[in-house]
Amino acid sequence: MARIIAAAVQMTSTEDKAANIDTAVRLLDRAAHRGARIAALPETFNCLGAPETMLENAEPIPGPTTNELCHVARRHKMYIVGGSLFEKMAGRRKAYNTSVFISPEGQIVGIYRKLHLFDAEVPGGASHRESDFMIPGDEIVVLETRFCPVGITICYDLRFPELYRALTEGDARIIFVPAAFTAATGKDHWNVLLRARAIENQVYVVAPNQFGDHPGGKRSHGRSMIVDPWGTVLAKAPDMECTVTAELSLDYLDEVRGHMQVHDHRRRDLFEEEEEEGGEEPIG
Fold first, then answer.
1. For the whole model, what pTM was predicted?
2. Annotated active-site positions, please?
3. Total structural domains in the chain?
């Protein structure tokens, strides 16, 4: 299929897991009624608050939350990017921050664990130490769909362009960015970074974000977005829980790539040759 309707779900999640899941299902239903064939939830959509509460609510995968998402995917015959949730690991105090990819048949067909953990002192904001309660993943993930290959990242990954280039060279044509991007950084960086990742890789970027105030003094930026390969914002969420949709044209993606080549495979090969020969590391 050359055209796909994609949806980004924006939520204001709390520590009430049951209420969060109800909201997610309601907004996914809305996405399906708008014709979405693939829909994405935000980061930590089923529980967001104090780290200790999030750890208490961690689940194995598959588990109760992913089982509910599988029912929704099967009911609407659509793909679901399950935002992320805390994945419980036997014998581990910390959890993975994990996104699941669910097929229209209601099967988990891919798992991505957040690579880059948000350890930062935000100017004018709070200190963040995700490594105190999360385990980083170690794999990038590109998954096949009936439409095209897709890549999955989570929130802070957005600041690492080499990850997006690796996904693109793995043939991803749509990249998802479930996030709980902070209000303090989001007002300056969210729009810019999403458009940059789309432009420099000539891909569609679908970025469902958390919005508003959460327990534990957290505040998320919202403004969930869908961006095309030219960097044009096709959809942007208002400041509320909602679903935004946009039509993605793979023919247009091919057109953009045909007019302007930014994937320099020749230069990448030269870098690899220099490393094998023990030469100096490339600059720039």
1. 0.91
2. 43, 114, 155
3. 1
